[in-house]
Design a protein that fits this description.
Blueprint lengths: L17 H8 L12 E6 L2 H4 L2 H12 L3 E5 L2 H6 L10 E4 L7 H11 L2 E2 L12 H10 L7 E4 L9 E3 L3 E4 L2 E4 L2 E5 L7 E4 L8 E8 L2 E6 L11 E5 L6 E8 L4 E7 L18 E3 L3 H13 L4 E9 L2 E9 L7 H23 L65 H15 L4 E10 L7 E7 L2 H8 L10 E3 L2 H18 L9 H5 L4 H11 L9 E7 L16 E7 L5 H17 L7 H7 L3 E7 L3 H14 L6 H8 E3 L17 H14 L7 H8 L5 H10 L2 H33 L13 H15 E2 L4 E2 L4 H15 L9 H15 L8 H26 L49 H4 L8 E8 L1 H13 L2 H12 L5 E3 L4 H13 L13 E3 L8 H8 L9 E8 L11 E8 L10 H6 L50 E8 H13 L15
Parallel strand pairs: 1-2, 1-3, 3-4, 19-28, 24-25, 24-28
Antiparallel strand pairs: 5-13, 6-7, 7-8, 9-10, 9-13, 10-11, 11-12, 14-15, 14-17, 15-16, 17-18, 19-31, 20-23, 21-22, 22-23, 26-27, 29-30, 31-32, 32-33
Helix pairs in contact: 3-8, 11-13, 14-16, 16-17, 19-20, 20-24, 21-22, 21-24, 23-24, 25-27, 25-29, 25-32, 29-32
Organism: Saprolegnia diclina (strain VS20)
Family: Belongs to the histidine acid phosphatase family. VIP1 subfamily.
GO molecular function, one term: ATP binding
Length: 1147
């Protein structure tokens, strides 16, 4: 008999029983008396048909006793004519490498089987351009993109610049993705902007444990072949693959994106780790559209969710989930349903069925990872003596009918087990961590520097003219690589032209080109200092008030102010410290059960978002932190672009120095007051302390007593700067001799590529700018710069044999001035600190309040499958809402991410699928740290009066949170302005006791008084805990813990090996067994990176002795409602009348 007369046996599966295998391999042809059995062919490459997922699905179909399964071999598919292929009623057929797709299509034309996946549409999947066309035509969102076609008669022209490309008039800015048009080519590149460090990432099919590599110096796009260029969408490091089985069933799995660090996470059997997640209704409709548009019943596609909007970026065609028993059960049942319905529909019609069974007209369908059958249908795996579909009145794929809705009246076994586990945990009455909110200062940076000079040379004026806005004489900022290179070339030519006459009578350059030839030389040295990458320097051109362009009649008055800024970059030490801080957060702030934070995060029960200002050092600190926090590998640029959200213009004031605008007038007043106080002689030290430290802060009092007489100390400081700059100049001269002798210019280089010449110039400038002989006064705004420079140089440049003789004395005196000056820039008395603090931190406080409110939100609409059940205790409702489809969430800064599908919890051995922890990390500069700390410490007048009234009352009054509607409106207006969802006021108004003892503790106030500095990586941590068994209206259900760390500490003369391997003193937490709160303080480890004091009153630092500071808990037991109310009151206290003026730069 011919080969077409017999079923081709399934390849043996190691999981089959003997009975199963006997059934599988039997040549079964039913007699006419028996019920009809359909022949279902599997026509694909053996590598695919023998795969475990395919075997699992076929085994389940085979058990139904309704199908004869015929698996085509490669020998038959590739070599035998289609006339000899088995005759099938229905067929699974799909392309993979080597499969003869056209031959299979000819077979379909000949035999007309019902196709599970249409073959002709699989040709579309070969070309990503055609895929996007189909998606767009069917109303599915795709990333904004441009296509470069080079396979036609007239190839498209691509214009490439430093940070963008232009194709057919469409500009795509970096970061962007470069995808080959050929869908079989998986070499996808991502190009990063110079603002993030530049370079590119190459994605490829997994090789071992790698799926991508970063190339820091490759910035040019490929020039051969056709490509799609699309905007890179920040998905917070998550990739989601959706697997459909028909238009009404979908299974979504998420994984760590290969864009992050390229390391593939694998399970114990070597499979890539993925976790099922829940799709929202929009995404379910997308899955339906993709399935129907491409006529692929079994279909996989890639989904991106960004700011509440979902996009499809790739469609793969035939795809099965790997290693999920529940999915295999569901898939087997849905495919059985599909095949029987389609075959019976075809047989009941006189004409032949189309290749793809007609689908019902669309109304929003049920879509679930649950099988789409009613409860009375037999479950998967059961034996059937009769056709289980005899009573089926309609099923998906049949004309004019809809699938039965998924039943939510029952839980899957996995959900039931999970509920039992949670029920057990709830009986233990263990409070649960709900949110971690941290505000962190950036890490160790290079000194910030600035140079100003007036120029009128024609080449520089023309450089400005080419870049200014047409018809406007506006400021021009130069940061792009090509622009900086052009400017460097101009400066070199000017130096070459004017250098021979420098020093001669008439000073040619000063007459013809600018006000200082020495400044022109310094511009050249700074521009040549590093390769042109990143954001380590910028140049501004500002036209003078009387500026006229050269082309005008008065063009002789073409004078510009050239301002160059450089430095302020995160150092390698800062990167290490940021990574170590992230590591400590991961290990000490989160529950340790079930694998800790990494397990929580990878299983999509951790909602993480990281926000930064637009300053490069702040962004890179956040990226380094994220690397340690999530235990990532590799370069920071991909991590920065993938995980860190840089706030846009409307929200940037939350973390950027622009937030100081409203408080600028008050800040300038306090500075002016400090300037007067420090330029006076005093009769005694006590008189000086009383005048300059009105609040009597312990650290300030100690520093002022060291200063004693401010004018005399300022003169001494100036003299010490002169001694230090002289020392550095001498060291530089010796190094230059050695460099010439050895013919090695690197001898002149110190840390981070700086040269000794530039270091010397930095100190010369500080010495020159600190004192004005004309005004006979000192510029106190330079005090932070002096302190930063000496600390930086002692840490990184001058140590060991090159240590500075006078460096220690300068450091200690500068630190005393900074200790009393910097914190008081933001207010000297309580009223000033309250006013400035609330104004600068208003936007940030509103965002924190939003985070707290979300953490304390108790969802009321969840289905039983996802309830964090608490049988026997309270409401037992989950604290966070599911992925919603709220229109307000679209394109919102805050949006719901993916969440674990709890129905798979048992299979994945996850005991608490309902657990959700919300983490919000905010990276900023020192100014926001001071002002936020002032808000937490001093609150606002309205709040303090309420507390005073409560203290004076015989019994503490009961107050209802958010009882003042006007305060709610202020917060929501701010959030709306920043593009953040408002705080919904539909929850219960929790009453709480106004107990001052639950606010900041006396011990915390005392500890804060002894803090001398908010150093690098200083941070404030707010954690929210829930006791779920308590009623919703109970004030103790949620409690807030607030902790503070002054940042990395240590001694500037500590050996580099100790500093480089140490962690920061990030131990404002130090929790041994989260989420419980320690009853006592935990010491900070002794190995630190910066400056450590034995006591703030002891200024004689021993560089070899390090005494640990204790961490500072501001409060451990404040009711969540009370904290929310306090923030709302402080936010609303800011006057609507604000002054806008010059905005000081952040520290």
């Amino acid at each position: 008999m011919s080969s077409s007369s017999f079923p081709i046996p399934l390849p043996p599966s190691p999981t089959l029983s003997d009975d199963d295998r006997a059934t599988t391999f039997a040549a079964v042809r039913t007699s006419p008396a028996m019920s009809r059995r359909y022949v279902v062919g599997v026509c694909a490459m053996e590598k695919k048909t023998r795969s475990k997922p395919m075997q699992e699905i076929l085994r389940r179909l085979n058990k139904k006793k309704q199908f004869d399964l015929v698996v085509f071999t490669d020998e038959m598919t590739l070599r035998q004519p289609i006339e000899d292929w088995p005759i099938c009623d229905a067929m699974f057929s799909f392309y993979s490498t080597g499969f003869p797709l056209e031959k299979a299509e000819r077979y379909v034309q000949l035999r007309r089987p019902v196709l599970v996946n249409d073959l002709s549409m699989q040709h579309v999947l070969f070309d990503r351009r055609k895929v996007y066309e189909v998606l767009i035509r069917n109303g599915v969102n795709v990333p904004r993109h441009a296509i470069v076609n080079r396979d036609g008669p007239a190839p498209d022209v691509l214009e490439e610049s430093e940070n963008c490309i232009i194709v057919n008039g469409v500009q795509i800015n970096k970061p962007f993705v470069e995808k080959p048009a050929n869908a079989e080519d998986h070499n996808i590149y991502i190009y990063y902007p110079t603002s993030a460090g530049g370079g590119s990432k190459r994605l490829f099919r997994k090789v071992g444990d790698r799926s991508s590599e970063f190339y820091p110096d490759v910035n040019q796009v490929r020039r051969e072949g056709s490509y799609i260029y699309e905007e890179f969408l920040n998905t917070q490091g998550t990739d989601v693959k959706v697997y459909t089985v028909g238009p009404n069933y979908g299974h979504a799995e998420a994984r760590k994106s290969p864009v992050l660090d390229g390391r593939v996470m694998r399970d114990s059997v070597g499979k890539e780790v993925r976790y099922p997640v829940i799709l929202n209704s929009v995404e379910k409709d997308i899955a339906r559209k993709v399935c129907l548009a491409f006529q692929q019943t079994v279909c996989g596609f890639d989904l991106l969710r960004v700011r509440g909007t979902s996009y499809v970026c790739d469609v793969n065609g035939w795809s099965f989930v790997k290693n999920s028993k529940k999915y295999y059960d569901d898939c087997g049942l849905v495919l059985q349903n599909y095949l029987l319905t389609a075959l019976r529909y075809r047989n009941n019609r006189s004409s032949r069925s189309p290749r793809y069974p007609p689908s019902p007209s669309y109304s929003p369908p049920p879509f679930s990872t649950e099988p789409l059958v009613d409860n009375h249908y037999p479950t998967l795996g059961s034996s059937h003596s009769s056709d289980p579909f005899e009573h089926l009145s309609g099923s998906f794929g049949s004309p004019g009918t809809h699938p039965p809705p998924p039943s939510h009246s029952r839980l899957s076994s996995s959900s039931s087990t999970s509920t039992d586990d949670m029920h057990h945990n709830w009986h233990e009455k263990k409070e649960e961590l709900r949110a971690v909110i941290a505000i962190v200062r950036h890490g160790d940076r290079t000194p910030k520097q600035k140079l100003k000079t007036r120029v009128w040379a024609s080449s520089l004026v023309n450089f400005y003219e080419k870049r200014r806005t047409k018809d406007k004489f506006d400021e021009v900022k130069v940061k792009a690589v090509m622009d900086l290179q052009e400017l460097l070339d101009i400066v070199r030519n000017l130096i070459k032209e004017y250098a021979p006459n420098v020093g001669s009578k008439g000073a040619v350059w000063e007459k013809e080109g600018g006000d200082s030839f020495e400044k022109l030389l310094q511009i050249k040295r700074v521009l040549e200092r590093w390769k042109f990458a990143g954001i380590n320097r910028k140049v501004q051109f500002k036209p003078r008030r009387e500026y006229m362009p050269p082309s005008s009649a008065s063009g002789t008055n073409s004078e510009l102010l050239l301002i160059m800024k450089w430095g302020g970059d995160l150092t390698e030490t800062g990167k290490r410290q940021g990574e170590q801080l992230g590591n400590r957060f991961r290990n000490e702030l989160y529950p340790v059960e079930e694998g800790g934070l990494l397990r929580l995060h990878s299983t999509f029960r951790h909602d993480l978002k990281i926000f930064t200002s637009d300053e490069g050092r702040v962004q890179m600190t956040a990226a380094a932190f994220a690397k340690g926090f999530l235990e990532l590998e590799g370069d920071l640029t991909p991590i920065l672009v993938s995980l860190v959200t840089t706030l846009d213009k409307d929200a940037n004031k939350m973390l950027d120095h622009s937030g100081q605008a409203d408080a600028n007038e008050e800040i300038e007043k306090t500075k002016a007051n400090m300037r007067k106080l420090l330029h006076r002689e005093y009769a005694s030290v006590d008189a000086f302390v009383a005048a300059a430290a009105p609040l009597g802060t312990a650290s300030m009092v100690a520093a002022l007593r060291q200063i004693a007489q401010p004018l005399e100390a300022l003169r001494k400081l100036h003299d010490l700067i002169k001694l230090v700059k002289t020392e550095i100049k001498e060291i530089g001269a010796e190094a230059e001799k050695t460099a010439v002798l050895l013919n090695d210019p690197s001898v002149n280089e110190v840390y981070m590529g700086e040269t000794l010449v530039l270091v010397s110039e930095r100190w010369e400038k500080l010495y020159r700018d600190f004192y004005s002989a004309k005004k006979l006064e000192y510029d106190l705004s330079k005090l932070p710069d002096i302190y930063d420079c000496i600390k930086y140089d002692m840490l990184h440049n001058f140590k060991g044999a090159m240590s500075l003789k006078h460096g220690r004395a300068l450091f200690e005196l500068a630190e005393c001035f900074v200790t009393c000056y910097v914190p008081q820039e933001y207010g000297m008395d309580v009223a000033e600190k309250q006013s400035i603090g609330a104004k600068v931190s208003q936007a940030l406080c509103a965002k924190i309040r939003s985070d707290i409110a979300m953490a304390m939100t108790i969802a009321r609409d969840e289905t039983p499958a996802v309830v964090n059940s608490a049988i026997g205790y309270g409401s037992g409702k989950s604290f966070l809402p599911l992925c919603t489809d709220d229109a307000e969430e679209m394109d919102c800064l805050e949006h719901n991410g993916y969440r674990l599908d709890p129905s798979f919890a048992k299979e994945l051995r996850i005991k608490s699928p309902g657990t959700q922890v919300r983490t919000r990390l905010y990276f900023t500069s020192e100014s926001h740290m001071h002002t936020l700390l002032n808000v937490l410490r001093h609150q606002c007048p309205t709040w303090t009066s309420r507390v005073a009234a409560a203290t004076a009352a015989p019994a503490s009054p009961i107050r209802t949170a958010a009882s003042v509607p006007e305060e709610e409106e202020v917060t929501n207006a701010l959030l709306k302005q920043m593009g953040i969802n408002k705080i919904h006021g539909d929850g219960p108004k929790i009453q709480y006791e106004m107990d001052p003892a639950k606010m900041i503790t006396p011990d915390a106030l005392s500890a804060l008084d002894h803090v001398t500095e908010l150093d690098y990586l200083a941070h404030i941590i707010v954690r929210v805990f829930e006791q779920p068994w308590l009623p919703e209206e109970d004030e103790h259900r949620f409690r807030v813990e607030i902790a503070f760390s002054p940042g990395v500490r240590g001694d500037p003369e500590m050996p580099e090996i100790t500093r480089s391997t140490s962690t920061s003193s990030a131990s404002s937490f130090g929790i041994s067994s989260p989420p419980s709160t320690p009853t006592g303080g935990v010491d900070i480890p002794a190995a630190r990176a910066f400056l450590e004091k034995k006591d703030s009153s002891q200024m004689d630092l021993d560089p070899r002795v390090v005494e640990p500071d204790n961490k500072i808990y501001l409060t451990t037991n404040m009711p969540g409602a009370m904290f929310d109310d306090m923030l709302g009151t402080c936010i609303a206290s800011v006057s609507t009348t604000t002054a806008h003026g010059y905005v000081p730069e952040s520290v």
